[in-house]
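Title: Prediction job returns without error message
Component: structure pipeline
Severity: low
Priority: P3
Assignee: unassigned

Description:
Job completed but the reporter wants confirmation the result is attached to the right record. Sequence as submitted:
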Amino acid sequence: MRCPSWRPSGDFSTCKEDSINQKLRIGTRGSALALTQSTWVADSIRRQHPRCEVELVIIKTKGDIMQDVSLVQLGGKGLFIKEIEEALLRNEVDAAVHSMKDVPAELPERLEIAVTPPREDPRDVLVSAGNRKLEEMPRGARIGTCSLRRGLQLRNRMPDLEIVSLRGNLDTRLKKVETEGLDGVIVAAAGIRRMGWTAKVSQFIPVELMLPAVGQGVLGIETRQDDAQARGLLAFLHDPVTWIEVGAERAFLKRLDGGCQLPIAAYAKKTGETLAVEGLVGSVDGRVMIQDAVKGPAAEFDALGRELAERILGRGGRAILDEVYREK
């Protein structure tokens, strides 16, 4: 059964200090970046609720184990969260910390994204040999990425580059500039900043040049829908602006039924009471890229995301999706 992955109200149950569970178990992947992110959440809880014991539970996911297979071949959806969600459903953990760009548009019944802390830098970054920027790359320069989305935008805007597919954790991908003789790799700025590696960055790529992945830079904390205790304990971490922005992006993704099999990007930005949402869809071979934008009341973020998806579908996106899922 499918159920909505987003609670539009964004309201939270409160949790009195004297009723807090003595122990909160947080499920997390075991990569250096995942542990850095989940440790930040755990430490924040300990400061806010000193009487609560917080335990990190490391869970291996399919995406972590099968490092030698592309995300497209593996099927994409839920590769980095499925096993953690199963632990949540079995009551083996009480919450899970995810990178929102890894979270499918649909969540399992009984689970929800309860909290989105303030968004980190949503941009992509280039880490290159010789500290060169994209515009300084020679013809035929080899740029590594694990993302169809990045490859699509690079091919359309800088067709002289050679795109090299990469897998591996963040530190592994960065090392491949040296180990595989690449001219550069493109990764998410948020992970670089959270790891304290900004000195390695050759270029922060503007969103105008490379539209981010849906939810890029956002942490999502997932809980069981009936666990008001955990939700109340985590409520202080919630950022309403991030909730609205990533909610619009995920509404766009959900309408497209998108996953890692297709290049999809979206970025929403709230200014005052107005929300601007930009998105794109491309063909797997990189030959077609359809991009559009909408703007409207921030309170209608879900409808804006769906409106943007409909516009792109009407301009040729539906044919792209039909082709991909027909092949599947």
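Comment from assignee: result matches the submitted record. Residues 251-327 form a domain with the Double Stranded RNA Binding Domain fold (CATH 3.30.160.40).
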